[in-house]
Amino acid sequence: MSEEPDVETVGTLLEDPTVRTILTQTSQEPMSATTLSTHCDASQPTVYRRLEDLRECGLLVERTKPDPDGGHHRTVYSTNLERITVDLEGGELTLRIERREDMADRFTDLIEGI
Questions:
Q1: What is the H or E stretch that residue 67 is in?
Q2: What pairs with residue 31 in β-bridges?
């Protein structure tokens, strides 16, 4: 994500019940798109589109999780969203997004900064 999304973009996203369900479910634990599809009662293509929209806005992170039993891996999603605030200042709406940063993100930032 190169720049913060605007009020209209975030408002449009949050208007969608599938997006709201994805955010609330992934705030509890990381989930796969298949699991989210069940929770959202939506098709997998719809869920994948919403996941991409949320990732583009920096409201969701994608991680690869190893599957020790099958020897493969799977992609899971979790929200890094802490708070969205919309303020009316000087006749304009301003948006502030606060994100959680976990240890893996901090470690990645540290390594990339070297």
A1: strand 60-67
A2: 77
